[in-house]
């Protein structure tokens, strides 16, 4: 038992050594000291502009369908709090990034921006920015969403990769420990080993100070998968959407504070 614990601990430490090398640039440091979140500038300047930009054969912008009297309509301005959601026309649960792609294909009639493109992240961040203050509500009473939630919990606990680590090993079992100067907390609102969770899903998309750009929640998962020596799961895959449903539902009821400002 003791040996097993030791092996697990060394796998976690090995996975986290590269995390220590991350540093914050002097330019960014100055902005934070002035209380400026570059993620908000990105949301407005890049995302907001794209939202209003006419595209496709009919020259439609997102705004031309979703704005009334100069304001983005309520259901779109708060959508970030309710996604991932089940979509009948796709026959599956999709996140906000994929909902944007759906509107691009179906209504703007253009080739959608890819999930890893700066444009998709910008539009997503803009919608999360508009939804700031809205409490997260992932509807677990909807059967498809519940199925994704349960699958997401399974993916969270599944040990994978060369170090045989699962998300759960670090984000539940190691809670209360300090990993490379960063104390580990539960990802939701639950308390584990006496540490209260920080409802992290309410902070993503976030501007990552160590990377100088905005990452979505799924892109943040990719970072952990890489550190843990796991094969990365594709953005938008059933596994990633399921993880997003699971982790976001752990923050149900907590107001979005997006875009966040994270290490
Ligand atoms: C030609 C009109 C049109 C355009 C252009 C359009 N949409 Fe939509 N959008 C709709 C309609 C209609 C729905 C709801 C019906 C559906 O689910 O397809 C919708 C639904 C949505 C929703 C989900 C709301 C909910 O309650 O689930 C979001 C978010 C959204 N659109 C964002 C966008 C964004 C971002 C763009 C630009 C990339 C865009 N839309 C472009 C017509 C449009
Ligand atoms: C080797 C340990 C380890 C594993 C395995 C791991 N993580 Fe992490 N994770 C971390 C550390 C360390 C951080 C950074 C904590 C911080 O910055 O406060 C982090 C940060 C995060 C964050 C962002 C928290 C925030 O708001 O800053 C999310 C979300 C997350 N992990 C999800 C996952 C998921 C999902 C998995 C499984 C695919 C996973 N992690 C696997 C160690 C791990």
Structure in a nutshell:
The active site is at 224 (cysteine persulfide intermediate). Helix content is 44%, strand content 10%. The protein is built from 11 helices and 11 strands.
Short key terms for the protein model shown above:
263 residues, mainly alpha, Cytochrome Bc1 Complex, Chain D, domain 2, 11 helices, 11 strands, binds heme C, signal, heme binding
Overall description:
This protein is mainly alpha-helical and 263 residues long. The chain folds into two domains: 2-25 and 138-262, Cytochrome Bc1 Complex, Chain D, domain 2; 36-130, Cytochrome c-like domain (Cytochrome Bc1 Complex, Chain D, domain 2). Helix content is 44%, strand content 10%. The chain has helices at 2-16, 26-33, 38-51, 62-66, 74-77, 96-108, 118-130, 143-157, 167-173, 217-227, 238-249, and strands spanning 67-68, 71-72, 85-87, 92-94, 178-179, 182-183, 191-192, 195-196, 206-208, 213-215, 260-262. The chain has a three-stranded mixed beta sheet with strand order 10-9-11. A two-stranded antiparallel ribbon has the order 1-2. Strands 3-4 form a two-stranded antiparallel ribbon. Strand 7 (191-192) and strand 8 form a beta hairpin. It is globular and about 55 Å long. The model has no long low-confidence stretch (mean pLDDT 92). One heme C (HEC) binds at residues 12, 15-16, 19, 165, 167, 169-171, 179, 182, 187, 200, 203, 220-221, 224-225, 227-228, 243, 262-263.
